[in-house]
Specification:
High-affinity nitrate transporter 3.2; Immunoglobulin-like; alpha+beta; 10 strands; single chain; 235 residues; membrane; 33% helix; three-stranded antiparallel sheet; signal
């Protein structure tokens, strides 16, 4: 009984520690300056276009502000307009539960300046409106500071990304050619069938006319059509 109570207590404490661990976005200082190449309102294509991101420490902060910074992770984040009715993109202050920034651009050791990366947008990035955010992490891999390309309300300097459709121009051309070939083949089939029907009708009429003429010749041209077969049978 005591062992069972101990296990339950340990499990409860573990859950509480997991819930309490992790930073809160509202507690972070915005000490990093982040810029990106896309212009406000620009629409890029996933799998094709590239984004250049630069970041560094805001020099207006006193020396030593970044003493605990060990790593920087730059991420692509959803703008509020692309989070509406999408719980899987929901913003949560507790960063371990936050779904705002799901696409990692780069992770590298921290430097106060001269940081830049060119990133090709991955093919699995969905169509949405985005901004870019960089987090600074300490030695315990906890977020301690951040910077982003938009304002605090995430309404400025936003850009769009259009997801890959999986269709190419060559595929569309092939589909059009196949459709045209199908239509031509169908028309050709009906034309051949109609021609066969006409030929068959012509042959049938010709044979009937020939038979009639032969009968008329055998019975005499002056014989009435009404008594044609009767007179022939009598003879």
């Amino acid at each position: 009984m005591a062992t069972r109570a101990f296990l339950l207590t340990s499990l409860l404490l573990s859950c509480l520690l997991q819930i309490c661990s992790g930073a809160y976005f509202s507690s972070l200082q915005r000490t990093l300056i982040v810029t990106a190449s896309p212009k406000a309102g620009e629409v890029l294509k996933s799998g094709e276009d590239k984004i250049t991101v630069t970041w560094g420490l805001n020099q207006s902060y006193p020396a030593g502000t970044d003493s605990a910074y060990k790593t920087v992770k730059v991420k692509l984040c959803y703008a509020p307009i692309s989070q509406v009715d999408r719980a899987w993109r929901k913003t949560v202050d507790h960063l371990t539960k936050d779904k705002t920034c799901q696409h990692k651009i780069v992770s590298q050791p921290y430097k106060a300046s001269n940081n830049s990366v060119e990133w090709t947008i991955e093919k699995d990035v969905p169509t949405a409106t985005y901004f870019i955010r960089a987090y600074a992490y300490d030695a315990e891999d906890q977020e301690v500071a951040y910077g982003q390309t938009t304002d605090a309300h995430k309404t400025t300097n936003l850009f769009g990304i259009e997801a890959i459709t999986g269709r190419h121009a060559s595929l569309d051309i092939a589909a059009v050619c196949f459709s045209a070939f199908s239509v031509v083949s169908l028309c050709g089939f009906f034309w051949v069938e109609k021609r066969k029907s006409r030929v068959a009708n012509y042959v049938s009429v010709t044979m009937m006319t020939r038979s009639y003429n032969e009968v008329m010749w055998g019975c005499g041209e002056d014989v009435s059509v009404v008594y044609l077969f009767w007179d022939c049978r009598r003879e």
